[in-house]
Amino acid sequence: MNGSANGRPSWSVGDDLEETVLPPVTRLGLIKYAGASGDYNPIHTIDAAAEEAGLPGVIAHGMLTMATMGLVLSPYLAHGYVKGFESRFSGMVFVGDELRVGGRVAGLEEREEGQLYTFEVYARKGEETVASGAVDFLLYGD
User: Fold this and answer.
1) Which CATH superfamily is domain 15-140 in?
2) Which of 61, 77, 130, 131 is at a distance of 20 to 30 A from 124, taking alpha carbons?
3) d(C-alpha 133, C-alpha 71), whole Å
């Protein structure tokens, strides 16, 4: 990605966003997310409930994992906003897992209000992709 003097991003199709390594998932983080989101499914916070559901332990909320993929665009929110976000979950995230999130510019469309970029984004633990998706980000016009 190239930037300009004012910090405004200048992306080209094929550019990679900088990959970010996140701190390990914690039980406290899952409890806080449950409270903030209203998703109190006990498989996300209580070991016995997760085990009863056939899981080896509590799992992170899918929407929390999705939100972490959006973090790669956070540095650019002064210049635009997320217009759309789709996600596909392909693995489970457990307490202690360290995720890496990143993305690549997949498309660009000129719009009256600015440039609409499409990013392919991912969340990985080790070499396993646990979630992937597409984010539409509208970069305000000059």
Assistant:
1) Hotdog Thioesterase (3.10.129.10)
2) 77
3) 13
CB atoms within 10 A of CB 55: 14
Domain boundaries, the chain: 15-140
Both tokens of 140, joined, read 């305000």
> Which one, of 22, 11, 61, 58, lies nearest residue 38 by Cα?
61
pLDDT in tens, 14-69: 999 999 999 999 999 999 999 999 999 999 999 999 999 999 999 999 999 999 99
Sort 39 into a burial class: Cβ within 10 Å, 0-12 / 13-18 / 19+.
middle
pLDDT single digits (tens) 125-135: 999 999 999 99
Q: Which residue has the tokens 């929407």?
A: 63
Name the maximum alpha-carbon separation found in the chain.
55
